[in-house]
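In this section we turn from sequence analysis to structure. A common task in structural bioinformatics is to predict how a protein folds when a small molecule is present, because the ligand can shape the pocket around it. The inputs are simple: the amino acid sequence and a SMILES string for the ligand, here zinc ion. Study the lines below before reading on.
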Amino acid sequence: MMTKANLFFCLLILFLFVMKAFSQSTSSSSANSSSESVSHETIQVDLNGEMKEQHVSGPFQFSEHDDAWMRKRLEDRFLKYVQIDTQSDPLSSTVPSTEKQRVLANVLLEELKSMKGLKNIDMDKYGNVYATLPKNLKRDVLSVGFLAHMDTATEISGFNVTPRVHRNYKDGENLMVDNLKIVDYKIDGKELSKMVGHDIVTASGGTLLGADDKAGVSEIMTAIEFLTEHPSIEHGDIQIGFTIDEEIGKGPHYFDIPKFSAAVAFTVDGGEKGTYNVESFSADLVTIVFTGFNIHPGTSFGRMINSMKVAAKFLDRVNQNMPSPDISKDRDGFVHCLDMNGNVEKTTIRCILRSFEDSELKQYAEGISKVIDQLRSEHSNVTIEMNVVQQYRNMKQVLDKYPFMELSIIDVYSALNMKDIVSVPVRGGTDGSQLSWMGLPTANIFAGGHNFHSQSEFVSLHDMADSVKVIISLAQTLSNVPPLPIKGH
Ligand SMILES: [Zn+2]
């Protein structure tokens, strides 16, 4: 039986295909136009017997001038943001995990306040920043959110970052700062050779750059500024969110989805230009406890039962029978036993199970259970208990119910002439996978950075400008989608 929701989405998809056909028929005629939104077609809509005009725009055509403006604004913002240390701390028990994240949050608040027409500009008690660019249409349309995280990775220092802009990149060059090789062409040449003529930003050695995800923060800010200055670009309510503690996996728990007020959202936190993510791992945690019997070793004959001996056998057999992360890639799943703590009396092993398919996670858990059964029959005097806890699920299961999100990403990337459009499955969890399951369907689009969490991090200002165009075009395209319920409203 077709449910009401299913029927709605079928209608929605039909609507999007009609819009797609429409935009293709109009975009060709507008190929040689300049800055402003072109190919306006006026259709007559009969509302309560009254004839009203409604403008339906084709995709906005960005000019060279827009491009240069975006790069300049991005450079100013990005260089400023990366010099504010916002590293999060996995060992902290406060929220946010580091107070310094609020420093950037306050800078963003002030900037948002200086832009024309934004509403609901606020920081919550955890340090998350929210703002709304209200719709410029009369009709009710989808409320769309854009999110980026303010914190940076925990592995490498974000203190005293000195960004450098390498102008007009020439193929074959390393990116050097004062005789120090920050990016090696031998390693990253494939990516660098796509950036000939670009201005590329790196740090100066010894620190992160922080493009993950201050590139995303700068891009959202610049897109919103552009929209406030180009009111001819139609859009629904745009919700802006800058979040804390993504790098330690705790951000979404403290993000106020009803306050954010978007029906769907995009994190701007992906890597290379042209990529996007609508799929993440599903994840379970398995804890196995081996209980033996301890007694003074001098008088232990026939009585001591060493739990570690059995635990060691367990590890050995799991590694023989199941894929581990060091031999897994692309769409492979794995079983990763990450720690083992214990003594003669009691040993605990924790293993994480990861796969894009829930059914495979089940197989892994069954495989572990089989190994345990074997060990129980060989060591009847050792008690072995196993406990499986669900950690998170593939966001695709949620996003499949909103097919227009992925379709719009592909549409917008194609309209901006991107060559390698690739959906990259995320071999981990993201803020998006958590938010999607918390009631805010969230896909991830590229922010343009490379070599995340490394001293060799780099990002092209030209690619960042393309990300700005993606955000603007997504907002415009999705203004053709009718409203959807917002969680908590
Ligand atoms: Zn990130």
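Residues 149, 212-213, 246, 269 surround zinc ion (CB under 6 Å). As an exercise, try to locate the residues that line the zinc ion site and compare them with your own expectations.
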